[in-house]
């Protein structure tokens, strides 16, 4: 896609309606591993790895529109509008995709993503030079979730790590491109949400350190279409790792035409 190969992992019957799953920053398709077996019984599931992550190619620069265009290209290739499900940064990408490519997104589900608006450029910590380690085990010991929270079960943690490491002549290193953590324009989320008319389900974790506390009133004020908000008790930002069965079940919650439902995330 525009010079970059985008990795897509799929499960389920392609004849069924499609869910496009979009991971967060520095993540990969394995973040959805706990949910996919549950979702694939009723849906065709396609897990995109955004450029700069997983097995997708790296780019010289990144922005929200590029990532949203990657999501749109996958849907277009599948041949029918889809439900787009995003977590964290992937939730923002999903919102941009729904606003920019409305004919391709029939429904939107967003997990724990509605950050504080920041005028100008979105600034992340300065990317670090790529580091190499003598063994996979040495690299794996450094794996942490951001924002910080307890790692999931060892089997799932192993999947997350395996999907994001590679052995090179210089040693073991992360697949992700740290340059994707750079500076790019704020997505103006409030404006984009006002442009979305497809049904939208906002799912928040109770104890997220990532979410701004004013998300609920902003969604209520700016939503351009039907929406519902749900909070998952006892969870943190990476709720799709903590409670995959609950999160999978929540995908069935969809607002009807003209429906709004608020709540305090």
TrEMBL record:
It comes from the Bacteria. GO terms for cellular component: membrane. GO terms for molecular function: catalytic activity. Signal peptide: none annotated. Residues 18-164 form the AB hydrolase-1 domain. SUPFAM superfamilies: alpha/beta-Hydrolases. Transmembrane segments: none annotated. PANTHER family: HYDROLASE, PUTATIVE (AFU_ORTHOLOGUE AFUA_2G14860)-RELATED, MONOACYLGLYCEROL LIPASE. This is Pimeloyl-ACP methyl ester carboxylesterase. It comes from Geodermatophilus amargosae.
